[in-house]
Predict the structure.
Amino acid sequence: MNDDYLDPINSVGMADMADSSFCLEFAMRAKNGVRNLAAALTETASPDVRLVLREQLADALALHEEISKLMVEKHWLHPYEVGEQFQMDLKSAETTVRIARMKLFPDDTARLGMFATPDQ
């Protein structure tokens, strides 16, 4: 990756990186749902509500498992290979830092003259 964000070479692999990022976010939200449902289940006294929460918890666990399997299958997650996962995370962090350092916006953000306005 070079510093020119308009250079098409920088878009190579971006779709896969975006997909893996979206999938990771989805997995984290599913995990948060599992955590919240488990907490709610421990705090509920009603048998009917507990039944509903157990069913939702089972669904949330199944969803998280499905997402995790997809991530492993796509090689976006290496739960049993810590070194490989670390290298992926490091590369992702470096890419994020490079993108953050790019000059994506002009110094002059004035919009004067860009719109049809009456003469002043």
